[in-house]
Amino acid sequence: MKTAAGIxxxxxxxxxxxxxxxxxxxxxxxxxxxxxxxxxxxxxxxxQWYYTERGERxxxxxxxxxxxxxxxxxxxxxxxxxxxxxxxxxxxxxxEAEEVLLELRKRGVEYWTDKIPYGGLNDWRTRIFVIGCxxxxxxxxxxxxxxxxxxxxxxxxxxxxxxxxYKLWFKLKRLWS
Length: 177
Prior knowledge:
Layout: H1 10-19, E1 27-29, E2 37-43, E3 46-53, E4 56-63, H2 66-79, E5 85-91, H3 94-106, E6 111-117, E7 124-131, H4 145-153, H5 161-176
């Protein structure tokens, strides 16, 4: 991990996070868009550390200078044990998950897993996350969204809400490209 000493600006913080392979999905630093999480921005010379969820944004702290704001944000991010976990996939069976975990161990990549009730208490899925820059060693193991959506929605049939949502998402993605 590269040292965080000397980080004084939002741009330097963003670079440090990316250099250390922090997932930018939960942190809006220097304007990247997130659906849910924390962010830091300069709003008319006043720096704001905020939390956003479901379109609602709450400012948690204000700072009069960038250096103090960046130090605060960096400390909060480093304290978040999930901040440097990079999601690589969700697996329906233990055998599927174990195959991926075995490959991660072979490559010497640090990982973290959990099990969540995906479709109710009788439908558990294993999620696998790679820690930090280990993500660079496993790009070939990352489930693509299309495959993952098919895997997790096939039990529900093509008319499921998830399948319809995916089809809409795919159409929008093509339009935006």
